[in-house]
Amino acid sequence: MQSVKPVLHTYFRSSCTWRVRIALALKGIEYDQVPVNLIKDGGQQLFSDFSEVNPMQQVPSLQIDGISLSQSLAIIQYLDETRPKPKLLPEDAKKRAYVRMISDLIASGIQPLQNLMVLQKLGEGERLGWAQSCITKGFHALEKILQRTSGLYCVEDEVSMADLCLVPQVYNAVRFKVDLTPFPTIARINQALMELEAFNVSHPSRQPDTPPDLRA
Amino acid sequence: MQSVKPVLHTYFRSSCTWRVRIALALKGIEYDQVPVNLIKDGGQQLFSDFSEVNPMQQVPSLQIDGISLSQSLAIIQYLDETRPKPKLLPEDAKKRAYVRMISDLIASGIQPLQNLMVLQKLGEGERLGWAQSCITKGFHALEKILQRTSGLYCVEDEVSMADLCLVPQVYNAVRFKVDLTPFPTIARINQALMELEAFNVSHPSRQPDTPPDLRA
């Protein structure tokens, strides 16, 4: 089955999908994209054909090796275990735990709280403040943790799954106009990562489904 | 360092902590508990000494082997990699991906949305309905996925990390009075798991910090 190109259901601005696009780029895996516009037509993720692909009605979803996977960290770890070069989780168990801790802090502790579903529930006037407070609270914790674990990147000097979570979350923070001044370690690592090609080609401003006015 | 007993910062009713308590029980790991009451004193997780343990100000946190870990799935996978019996992630990469997908669907896709911080943000009259709708939406997806992956338990016939996420989430669903009738697979697996000792001894009604009126 590995000769069939993987298919990624994607939305240019989805931070969870961006995580997976970085992994695919770092590992040099060719894939086809099927865009799922989360805004248009009342949300194409709610269409019944996509619900068959991912019952959770969220991107990303990756069809690969004859199976259909959703949840970005599950996808990234499957890619890492089946296409191990370059490794996105360190060999050492403690460092791997730090990578997962940082990844989950973002993927469970920050991103879901500033996601579309929660923002739609809140009133128009409350959305920005809520998103800012969730991200700021999470970043205060993340900054402290990264001061202990980081080298060039989130966990020492190798790019890991934690970095794949960090950059899209910083992108969201900027979108929501979060003041990054209190987070020098986060800002430094983000800047170092954005110099890498895989983080650039996968950027929301450079996807096939990026609207023309948002292209870089 | 492995001769020092691990220390779990815990709250009896925290579903994320219950996941870790099940892992510790299944693996027969002895540990000490430090209760952190999320309600009392305005939330003891906000105290500065606990913020040093976990800057995210959430339980669980596990001090083990000379390091301090937070995020339940990172903790469980660290335990599984350093104390592999019984294994909580299958050997096969695709099955492992299913285990992580189901775990993340609950840990990132459901639990954070019905967590304390979001509920406190919503008005008194909106909380129950919101929690119910988040859990119900997630359970519809989970039910479909489990129909494909489950045997006796979430992924075939071995207890895995996915099961450690399922049972506490069903407990939350019951607390929030979610109708489980549309989810026969979830209900069946939950019932099978609750027959296992590790899921019982770790139950919120049987912890050292369980208030007397909530004890089973």
SSE order and pairing:
2 copies of one chain form a homodimer.
Chain A: E1 7-10, H1 15-26, E2 32-35, H2 48-53, E3 61-64, E4 67-70, H3 72-82, H4 93-109, H5 116-121, H6 127-149, H7 161-175, H8 184-193, H9 197-201
Parallel strand pairs in A: 1-2
Antiparallel strand pairs in A: 1-3, 3-4
Relative strand content of chain A:
5-15%
The CATH topology of the largest domain in chain A corresponds to Glutathione S-transferase Yfyf (Class Pi), Chain A, domain 2
Number of domains of chain A: 2
Q: For the record, what CATH class of the largest domain in chain A applies?
A: Mainly Alpha
Explained architecture:
Chains A, B: Belongs to the GST superfamily. Zeta family. Chains A, B: Residues 92-212 form the GST C-terminal domain. The structure is a homodimer of 216-residue chains. By secondary structure, the first copy, chain A, is α+β, with helices and mostly antiparallel strands. Chain A has 2 domains: 7-86, Glutaredoxin (3-Layer(aba) Sandwich); 93-199, Glutathione S-transferase Yfyf (Class Pi), Chain A, domain 2. Helices cover 49% and strands 7% of the residues of chain A. The first copy, chain A, has 9 helices and 4 strands; from the N terminus they run E-H-E-H-E-E-H-H-H-H-H-H-H. Chain A has helices at 15-26, 48-53, 72-82, 93-109, 116-121, 127-149, 161-175, 184-193, 197-201; strands at 7-10, 32-35, 61-64, 67-70. Chain A has a 4-stranded mixed β-sheet, with helices on one face. In chain A, strand 1 (7-10), helix 1 and strand 2 form a beta-alpha-beta unit. In chain A, helix 1 runs parallel beside helix 3 (72-82) and helix 7 packs across helix 8 (184-193). The longest helix of chain A has 23 residues, at 127-149. The radius of gyration of chain A is 17 Å and the shape is globular. The termini of chain A are far apart. The model of chain A has no long low-confidence stretch (mean pLDDT 94).
